[in-house]
Amino acid sequence: MSDGGNNGNWGDHYPVSCPPGSAKSKDVAPVYRLSLNNPPLDEDFYSHKEANLRYPPDKECEACAISVFTDLEQIQKAKKKIVLFKNRGHIIEGQIVSETGVVSEPDHKSHINWWVYNGIDVKKYFKDNS
Predict the structure, then answer these.
(1) Is 12 buried (19+), middle (13-18) or exposed (0-12) by CB count in 10 A?
(2) How far apart are the first and last CA of the chain?
(3) Would you say the pTM of this structure is higher than 0.70?
(4) Confidence (pLDDT) at 3
(5) What's the pLDDT at 1?
(6) H or E stretch including 78?
(7) Alpha carbons 51 and 80: distance in angstroms, whole number
């Protein structure tokens, strides 16, 4: 289901063959994300690449995705570990709707990469959950 190769569905910052072919379009709820603002702003949904954050060179495709978690306990642990969010961050709850993009399968910590189609207003799928 992946439209890798930057055919217009994805941002110009996506590398060729990203998202990976293993990414699937599906509904996932609930999902949780760390946010610096309450209520969340557009920039709370920037990928690492869009926010000019550091990432390993071999993880460019993952850096184009939005990170979310399916398990509340796992994102609470992440919030405590990530200095930026530890004292002033918020956990927001939302959902992934299949029409918004494609996702990876959750890893052992319930983390999902969500590659969002161009033009999707991601924040409308989230509410504050502090």
Answers:
(1) exposed
(2) 34
(3) yes
(4) 39
(5) 39
(6) helix 72-81
(7) 21
